[in-house]
UniProtKB/TrEMBL annotation:
<protein>
    <recommendedName>
        <fullName>Mtc1 family protein</fullName>
    </recommendedName>
</protein>
Length: 70
């Protein structure tokens, strides 16, 4: 079974420890639901962007945690 993982980064791509420790997700939907719930805490804790991996394969990213300018 695949494991979905987030990598937390500064804007320059440097990996940082997340302010909220993620679980290991068994589906992409679970991983995306979690990031939707905690992204503000992650941002406040020093992460600027995230990448989503399925095991060791990058699915997408970097995805900014900064809200879009309206």
């Amino acid at each position: 079974m695949a494991t979905w993982l987030w990598r937390f980064e500064k804007a320059d791509g440097t990996e940082v420890q997340p302010a909220v420790q993620p679980e290991e997700f068994t589906t992409q939907g679970d991983a995306e639901s979690w990031i939707g719930e905690v992204w503000k805490d992650l941002l406040a804790g020093g992460a600027d962007q995230v990448r989503l991996f399925e095991d060791s394969t990058e699915i997408y990213g970097p995805m900014s945690l900064h809200a879009e300018e309206s």
